[in-house]
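Page 47, continued from p. 46.
Same chain as before, 439 aa.
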Amino acid sequence: MTTDQKAVELALHELHGSLDTPFTESMNLLNEVSYRYLHSISLAAGRPHEGFFDPAVLPRYIETFREHLRAVFKGNEYWVNRTLLQYGRTKGVIHDLIAKHLEIDEKITVDPETIVVTVGCQEALYLTVRALRRTEKDALLAVFPCYFGVSGAAELADMPVLAVKDSADGVDVDDLVAVVTKAKADGLRPRALYLVPDFANPTGTTIPAPVREKLLALADEHDFLIIEDNPYGLLTDDPEQPRTLKAMDTNRRVVYCSSFAKSGIPAARVGYVIADQVVTGGKQGAETLSDQLARIKSMLTVNTSPIAQAVIGGKLIENDFSLRAANVRETRIYLGNLEVALKTLTELFPDGSTPEVTWNVPRGGFFVILTVPFAVTDEMLARCGRDHDVLWTPMHHFYGDGVPRNQIRISISAVNEDEIRTGLASLARFLKEEHDSQS
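Result:
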């Protein structure tokens, strides 16, 4: 470039609007804080437990999947190698194995052809909202506070998100009806309700079975779909855990999204979506929503890495397609960590203590919500990491409005019991220090 040439500058206001939103900033900020305070105990990251990670299983899983392919192709090595190493089928190459897993673990029976294997659950969410967003009148419903990944996906698809109130049951059903009714009166079309019914991120709430039945009835009555996101549901030994919405779905109202990040291998980045809704009016005749999602995927990521799928496929095969059985050790750790966290909170913040701190009591999952006597900011998070060596997540990040709230989310998944005790003790000191400074 010569001295009289000027480098191109791009104005942010001329780029896509999603690049300058609180949800985008949330992910960047939380990652930045984590790397800035590497010495800190992170009660912020909702990552799976790393204690059983073993790179040695990767070639074994791949070879197990190759043996499976040899049976499928009757020993033809050309097709075995092509399936594993060539560009793959857009819908995926382990869709049939996922269908077997769902039948065994979730009692969900679906045609494997209605499954699209995706690059993590995030792609599954994006494909779904992108397909449902036809005009500016289409809208997504979501319970707030909400996992910001789905809000970000909706923003990328230029789809407005209508907030529904939370409740102890995971969703305020009366408010859902009110929001849907108002949206229709305003000329909008609510296309789907996004939910994490089992151990929700960020609240840890589980939606009771009667409420799930009510939600399916409301979806029929008001003509919207339900996008069920279920990354944590397998990680429990509770015999009273409600069935998934998809397992209860008799009218194909539920689009079911999940991934193997928590129950398989996170680095594989393999997720999937069941989209068995019939789509009419196309040139190919009657198809399913999965066919439409595959068309979008073919223009986005082309296909999900067959090698990554082979790793997950091998794990499924070796565990007789049951990831509940494969994750018994991990489930015990998550439930044990949750028990330790709740017990430690009780010891650190007994009734009548100052500052007054309360918390919810999830039945499982990765997250607990603490309510504190002052509004929590990102600056406080940075100060806590710097001065008290512990990180957590301010709850305003799950609302997307940047307004500080009197709540924080802690995660118990990626730490051990000693780190939980030490981290919560440090957090207690920070909260007392902050409370005293504001009194």
